Amino acid sequence: MISQPTRRLRQAVALAFVLAGPVLAAADAPAGRVVDLPPLTVSEPLNGPPWRYLEAPGFEVLSRSSDEATQHLVREMHRLNEYLRVMLPDELQARPAVPSIVVIYSEETKPVVSQEVVAELLAGQVGKKRNAEKNVRYRSMPNMQLNDKDAMAFFFILEEKNFTNSRLVLTPDFVRNVIEKRRPSPPPWFIEGILGLYDTADFTQSPVVFTALPWLTPAETKKLKQDADYPRALLSMPELFSAARPPRGQDPEQYRQLRRAQAVLFIRWALDGDRARSEALWKYVVRASAGPAGEEVFQECFGLGYVDVQERLGDYLTLAVDQPMKLTPAAGTPLPPLVPRLATDLEIARIKGDWERLEIGYVGTRYPQLTEKYVEQARRTLRRAYDKGERDPRLLAVLGLCECDAGNDALARPFLEAAVRGGVLRPRADYELARLRYAEAQTAPAAPGGRFSGAQATAVLESLADASRQPPPLLEIYALAGEVWSRSNVALSRLNLSVLEQGIAYFPRNPQLVYQAAWLNARQGFKAEAEALIERGLKAEPDPASQSYFELLRSALNSPEGKPSSLPGGGP
Amino acid sequence: MNRRLAASALLAALLLRPAPARADAPTAGEIAALLRPDRILQVALAPDGHHLAYTVHDEGKTVIFIIDVDDPAKRAVVPLAYDEVMRDSGDHEKTPAHVPFFRWSGSGRLVFSAERPALDVVDVRRKNAPANTTAVYAVDADGKHVLMLADEDTFAVETMRGNDPVSLPREPRVVDLAADDPDSVLVEAVRPALRVPGNPNATVGQLATGLFKVNVHTGKFQKLYERDVNGSVLYDRQGNARILLSAPIDQKVQSFFYLPPPAGQADGKGLGQLLGDDISPENYLGTRTFPVGFDPDPNIVYVASNAGRDTYGLYAVDLRARRRTGFAVEVPGFDVAGFQAPFSDSDLVFDRSRGKLVGVRINGLEASTQWLDPDLAQVQAALDGKLSGRSARIVDWDDARARFLVLTSGGADPGRYYIYQREQDRLVQFIRCAPWIDLDKANPGTSFAFDTPEGVHLTGYLTLPRAPLITPPPLLVYCHAGPWQRDDPGFNRDAQVLAGMGFVVLQVNYRGSAGFGTQFREAIRQDLDRIPLADIRAAISWASAGHKIDRKRVALLGEGFGGYLALRALQLYPDEFRCAVTINAPTDLELWCEKPESKQEQEDDMEASATSMRQMQRYFRSMNSRGGARPPAQPPEMAVAPVNFSSEFRRWYFGGDSARLAALSPARHPELLTKPLLLIQDPEDKYVSAGQASALRTAMARAGATPDYLEITSEFARGLPGARTRVFTAMEDFFNLNLYDFNVKIGETKVQK
């Protein structure tokens, strides 16, 4: 996750996101192509400094680097989070309840990747090209982020000599992840706009400086700079906010490009005003995340209509392409004293094992032939503490999740049952347990007609209820709840079904969830609620195929012979 | 001085000072920026839709830009004129050139006229030289081949002075593009007619009027019409003179005459009231019909009429059938087409390529267009959807109707031009009328309409201060210079400046205002002051009910008759208004109606007297030379001063009841003026002479009061930003002192030993 500082980025290093591949190339790198390999641990040196543990707000750190470097890294991460708020307030960021784990090695003690693994990785990554190209250098990526449904994990290899004087920057993919994981998810225009704006930001200093805005093409930008009267074709605000396809006669790529550029312009305009204007933007995005927000909502937030703002954007464009914008981060929460200490065996197993567990999924999608090695590695690490009698629920949860990720549901369940009994707070652990119970119920439905009995349903729903009480909200929780209800004979109250509506509030753009909730309400005889959900689905879902499902359900609901059994199941 | 006494005195001084200027109070520069006129005077889209031409006034000059719509970086620049100090004006500021005509010919040449204006107090009928300096040009879309088509000399009147040929210049005015020839433009040239030797009065007021068809590529022209006329001529769109509005300089009544039509066309003779009534001071505001303009079909003439109805509607008369057609544009509550100016067809929208009337502009509560063409109505609907909250005016379009030039205004925006690309359903912003105005610093404005408890339907405009000085903010009632005028929709610079000073600005179309029908216009005559003031007070109550307003801080500002109303409001309702500013306000109605209205009228009177004197002197000399040998010749008739229609109308409107006028005159009751007053007066004002301000000042001085007084020049009335800034800055000082007085009561200073 840490890279060597580069001159080009003014000693900045990136907090990178391996899912997007390596994002930082050294400006002073020698000639020839550089292939970055993911820093996947297979084994590590027995010698070297011991593992140190550090707790900071939002993070649990396990480090084999110096305390100074570790503290510097944590301070930088804290600073970056504070700076990020100038363009993305907390309320619009995903914040899982589980602290993010950070695993740090120093360059000197970096983990050894076995030659066999490297060979296989390289074969998979570059294939035949490897022999064809000369001057190709291979190196491990210095930093990486892996995500679970309910947590984030970071891995760093620090070159301590230079690192303590360097500054970090966030990669765009990190920022994307933070926005996209927020529930309900912000509208696409906002995500695109924030990422576009972030591309222009320099996060190494305060105030944060955003360069003059590049507009569509360099030539277009130049013309706008030179001539305040140069025509500007902006989308109307409804077009900007809509996810609809480009109108007839428009080039789709140009239209997409314009929509993205205008989203950046709009966000920048909102941030470049007084505090009230940026507050208005946050308020509007929160409203628009929860569902369709028309001009009335816009007016309520900004005190201006769509056309008022469109005019202002046209005027502001002249300034934006010419001048940088500076935003000063507010004085944030001070970081408490960072006191590293020796890590316990349990902490080493749990944190390092969790990171290695996350590698399983990553390797599995890219290098399936290596999956088993990584499963073994993770198991080894986690079992080291378990075998010594450690029964910490968090460790048990990771053990259970590790087996789930490895595809061994049977091995996973005892760990998860024990973790949940121990009171672990991790929504994915509760969800996975519910899933396993559901799978079990499926093999032997206890009610007639292949349906679940009340007890079977309750066993699953209890776990889902626990999961739903912890952030971040997971779509799977609500989808599974709907599935369980649809397969059980239990009479449902409105209170029961309101759980699905809670899910819709978190995932308003998911047509399946809306359809499932409408269908269940209809089946239980809550016609008005079903109608309202159908209406919502029709309004929110521009896809004609999905719309036809809702229309079908509506006609069945309103037909004279409409019986619960005649309602079309499935969904978009 | 004792230290404590000194401290008390200092405290008192601090408390008594007018409210200190706010940190965000508008600076003189900001006021000047708001008052700076639009930089865009004219815009036109080429018939092929590929070129957009517009004028820009900036940095002391006016230029034309012609841009390629598809590649806007390709731009041709045609210099037009530098600003100049208007000749004979005594101005300090320079005035930009006017561009009265700016259109693309059917063959793709841009035709425009440039006018360096002179003082318009000079009536062209009384002068030997044209008032303005105007020239007509044409240019290609690439900015090349600029050709002057006409100037004052092009259509000069040739005559002899003694034995020498003399060429008398004649000012050209573009009437229209010729409907029957894409390469030609119709240009009218007018100057005072030559006086007949020996009978100087015979042709006074007659105008040598010619109409020429000018080729926009070559400048060659063909004379279509030439005649000395007593008034103005309406031409059909082929260039034939069809109707004469005869307005002899010595008569009160103006009449329409129908000129012989070209072969194959019908004339209006005998149609009488179907086409137009005589215009007299008595019927000017009453029931009338008058021609507005011709259709591209020369047998169809459009007329405005309020006969048989309260508001003016627009109708068409078929000269062949000798009756009105089924065409009618009527808008309940609003006059369609102004009643002041016959032969003014600026409200009619024609599609040049299709050769037909397609829409009528409506000056309602908001500006709008009633489209007669369903296709354009559809485009308008699309634009209204995209530009909700704005007035979107389709100004021009290409022949294929693929691109439309659209002017938007409203809200806090002074205006901007877009091209609407129909196929892509896309609006592209091209030009802003006043880019120096920051929308975030402009004050929100809105129109309103409501019915008073007495059942009077009132309309107007309210501008709210973005940053009031105090909460709730004070109210400033801005009275327009009616009667027979009105407040118009759209961005109002004055209201913006005043709202920028922290006022809620209320403009109300009180009864007597124009544009809302005869009954509304005439209602004021029953009670010249209390009826409009009742409407103003009702509007204040209405505004207070819906907006936070400090009813204890209500001030008035009025120009002309509006200033008169402000004075009367202070006199009649002193508890409701804190102070007032008047600009060129009549203060003594009796005096105002008796005295000549303007300097021009004074000059006319003096000239008539001098002429009579000279004639009498000649008569007596001839008597003396004869030595009484023969019977004396008939004494000459006294020369009569030309009739000033405006003065005649005013005298009729206000009536001849001296006692009533005296009772209604603020200057006759100075003791009632107990509130602070700022009188602003242009001594050269056309309508209200300096005597009106001095009458009030003298009367108030006798009553022991002294109003503030500010003398201005006509630069203010002509909208020159420097002059207006000075006046508005003075107003701000006055209001700060008299309206933002926080009314802190200070006890008597006690000297403590």
Features:
heterodimer; A: six-stranded mixed beta sheet; three-stranded antiparallel beta sheet; 23 helices; 13 strands; about 50% helix; B: alpha+beta; Rossmann fold; eight-stranded mixed beta sheet
**Distance from first to last alpha carbon of chain A:** 39 Å
Q: What quaternary form is this? A: heterodimer
Portion in helices of chain B: 10-25%
CA-based gyration radius of chain A: 26 Å
Share of helix among residues of chain A?
40-55%
- Which architecture of the largest domain in chain B per CATH? 3-Layer(aba) Sandwich
What structural class results from the helix and strand content of chain B? Answer: alpha+beta
Largest sheet strand order of chain B: 29-30-32-31-33-34-35-36
> Percent of residues of chain B in beta strands?
25-35%
Write out the CATH superfamily name of the largest domain in chain B.
Alpha/Beta hydrolase fold, catalytic domain
Distance, first to last CA of chain B: 11 Å
Number of strands of chain B: 36
As residue ranges, the low-confidence spans of chain B are: 1-21, 742-753
